[in-house]
Amino acid sequence: VGVQDFVLLDSHTSETAFLSNLRKRYQENLIYTYIGTLLVSVNPYKELDIYTVTQMQLYRGVNFFELPPHLYAIADNAYRVMCSEYNNHFILISGESGAGKTEASKKILQYYAVTCPTTEQLQIVRDRLLLSNPVLEAFGNAKTLRNDNSSRFGKYMDIQFDFKGAPVGGHILSYLIEKSRVVHQNHGERNFHIFYQLLEGGDKDLLCWLGLERNPQKYAYLIQGRCAKVFSINDKNDWKIVRKAFSIIDFTEKDIEHLFGIVASVLHLGNIQFEEDSNGHAIIRDGTQIKWISKLLGAHLSILQEALTHRKIEARSEEVLSPLNVDLAFYARDAVAKAIYGRTFTWLVNKINGSLANKDSTRKTVIGLLDIYGFEVLDTNSFEQFCINYCNEKLQQLLIEMTLKAEQEEYELEGIEWEPIPYFNNKIICDLVEQKHKGIISILDEECLRPGEATDLSFLEKLEEKVGDHAHFVTYAFTLCILPQRKLFPSLIHNRISGREQFWLCNKENQAAHPLSNVVMSCAGRVRPGVLGRWWRRPETVATQFKNSLTSLIEILMSKEPSYVRCIKPNENKEPGRFDDHLIRHQVKYLGLMEHLRVRRAGFAYRRKYELFLQRYKSLCPATWPHWHGPAAEGVERLIKHIGYKPEEYKLGRTKIFIRFPKTLFATED
Predict the structure, then answer these.
(1) Is residue 354 annotated as a catalytic residue, yes or no?
(2) Which of 25, 34, 566, 596 is placed for a possible disulfide with 30 were both Cys, Cβ 3.0 to 4.6 Å?
(3) Where would I find the Myosin motor domain in this sequence (predicted)?
């Protein structure tokens, strides 16, 4: 149906032809299509019988182009090249929220678990790698308007392999858990899965010990989205999977007790109410919730109350307690809840990493899986959407640098002539956000750190002053007057008017919540005893911390060989079989798929070093089989002449052979 590699499209420059081919295949449940070695995946929103063990074995060890496009082909190709060339790889899975990135990541993990060599000891590692997923999903995923199991954090997982190609360990890096979800959910959305799983699936004795009731309507942090129960989610069953995973991942009963004590404490925190005393200061009259927190975390009531109703300020080199008013006390409560959950999630990832760690010092190769949040453009965009979309711009820049730009540079280095393809380099967008002293993040940090009262409006004025004339920047105020139909920079003013968290407050979150969360977290044994005594050193702002971790991630990826999976969401309603042309056309554009296709078609679909090409195909020519004793380039030239390659089908570079059409390669494989 259609063509299974877009490179073979006759009208390869036509977006309409591209969409038509994608639609034809999707309507026949063919959700995968290649652009050379890049895989385009369209979410079917239904179960397909293409992920069986039989299918896994079918793709195992088979040349990339021999079988129809499949996620398993991408996984197997990365694995085989890693084993034969002993280098490190990563598979970048990208796309919009709800496009199927998390599922794709899980399918690849399952493929390696089934097809790689194993022993009884390695089986334990394999099970831990697989079962780390439901635990991280429970604590890091949530129902959103677009996706019932949306990852609200970024995840990069390295799978480590020994010299035999067996998985022997792993390591996970997490990025920007969406802490604001702990205290606020939009209509039609839920908090993180774990809260509902605990209430629905936890046994009676556990809930009694935690001071919780089964009904999620009893908890302020769980009811704002007005959809605690979701038809497509089985919280009770998911709870069983998570509990089983904990035992296999090597969590002790004490670890689990601490963990659910903290989860319950967050729910109790959300139910704390403040009243105003005669001096206008916040007080807690009903101590029920705070007593539960005290019991679960082993904290003194007076310390907890002080942490929630006072702040410490420096006066004449001394620390003085200053009481909070009711509004600030509610903000402090929410800041503590978010900080506790965020730091607990970090502890959870570190604990999983401890169970996946391979202590053998022998050299290992890795395949990294990057499953990170997709672009999000909502009616009201918060600080999280700003960070998420900045992350996606960086990943798009990575694709440009490692694929489009690298293609052109490689041909020049190899002495192969071809006409360069113009493309939009989004470095200018990334610089607008991240440039030192001049970018949006630096301007935001300045506003957070300067003396005096900072607001989103003062931040907006600074942006106008410093980057207002940038070709790719339009402020919300300008949009209201001139371009009301365009969805542009996050709606700062709207956020402020509607009572949502402000950008500058979200960015200062680490600084505001750090001392408060230390008080609570230290009681749960999560902070070293000395921390409280010396108070706290100002941590980085959230945006700067995220920018630095993103820079580190890009460095990790740049050191590895890439494979790409581009996920596409066919419609907004998660409806099987429905292909929304307008929505998909938009995704094809911002995923850079047409640019990628133009480069692949204008250049060459396949290239390989002479030595590797000769090793693979030398048996097809009497002159090169079983051994070729001259230079590899001459051996390849002799080989392809014997096979009958036509001059327009290939070029010989300085170190590689370049084959223009996949069909030439298909014929060679046959």
Answers:
(1) no
(2) 25
(3) 2-670
